[in-house]
């Protein structure tokens, strides 16, 4: 990253505006798809364990790409990286919008992911070097307000589009906007970067891709194939071995592709742990609520989107407030308060019934999102604040990579729990139903019984998944008690250079 940005008195608001618009479109695209997943399942005749690849496939590519972004940020200019990222995202959107079978749709999503994977660390790095620590919480809060507008708009807009048009219109809607942002970036971004004499270590890139990719693919496959499948545990084992080799190699390189030295800073290590654990719990709501309201309750996509709207608005409106509170009080109080709310509301989501009212779901989801709004940005910012400037690209890349990995693990775990527990509950409910069924039930009665058994079994499976998510969120709550306000650590490399300069002057 060009350090000239850091040396100016005024933050580069023009660059930040273009980057934020690009990131907003990427976030909007993701939130549009969540409500559409049940419609995609019906239209393409696929199961929940298959359609989850719309999310986990995106994570897979991101997990492979993001570790390299630290190198890319150091090597290339903001303009060049943004144009490549937005170009890939636009191309992926066009491919997905023309898909009439699942593999092509998934391919489009993966191309989108390759662009988004570059864009988010790039934006975070520009934010970090543009604002001093004492103003960073407020800046991140405003950044959160803009980005969280996407989850506020996305579900409702998606519900309306899916209800009145084909789900492919979601991609057709985004395509012209993405193309416009790409053109704006081409004409408005003018920053240049001097030649940087660093080279990509291709062996590190290979090990990183196999390591993170193997873990993501293995955990994602578990939702479809089961944890006892050789395909699953062999892939996870290969990924784990490659990742360990990658970490060892990075520790021996003078200019590592992804510097694991960031974990020597305790607040960064703690913040990464908390956000990873919380991410696993977060996906329970994103994944399970749309399935519950549409598949079990028969609520329309439009109403399902409106259900999510107040929670997303609460999260967006709280972002600047949370940012200012973070600057004043630090992250510990916010994290403990927010995670307590998250744990309690996640538990209440594990008590859903076939008669749970729409209003109850709206209020519960809104309170849950309110709690999460107090955690993610403050905890991440507090951890990054402890890093020396030289580590910013590596810190943002590491956070984004770990978020993708934990998200994939959480999704696979919760889908597996929902699927296996649904089968168990279906067998038990069917056995109980046969005891009270008529001696010779008609086909109509059997069909009605079968439908009711499937609905009750899936509901019980979803409740079990939410119950596990409650314990996952509780782990994050326990970790939050160890948070301390971070101060930027001294860079040992800069100290050594300063000592050399002093010695040279004395001589």
From TrEMBL:
Molecular-function GO terms, alphabetical: transmembrane transporter activity
InterPro entries, alphabetized: EmrB-like, MFS, MFS_dom, MFS_trans_sf
The keyword Transmembrane helix appears for this protein: yes
Transmembrane annotation, as ranges: 12-33, 53-74, 81-105, 111-131, 143-161, 167-188, 200-219, 231-248, 268-293, 299-317, 329-349, 465-483
Transport is among the record's keywords: yes
Subcellular location: Cell membrane
GO CC aspect terms: plasma membrane
Membrane topology according to the record: Multi-pass membrane protein
Positions of the Major facilitator superfamily (MFS) profile domain: 15-488
Entry superkingdom: Bacteria
Alphabetical UniProt keywords: Cell membrane, Membrane, Transmembrane, Transmembrane helix, Transport
CDD domains named among the record's database cross-references: MFS_LmrB_MDR_like
Family: Belongs to the major facilitator superfamily. EmrB family.
NCBIfam families reported in the protein's UniProt record: efflux_EmrB (TIGR00711)
Name this protein carries in UniProt: Drug resistance transporter, EmrB/QacA subfamily
Organism: Mesobacillus persicus
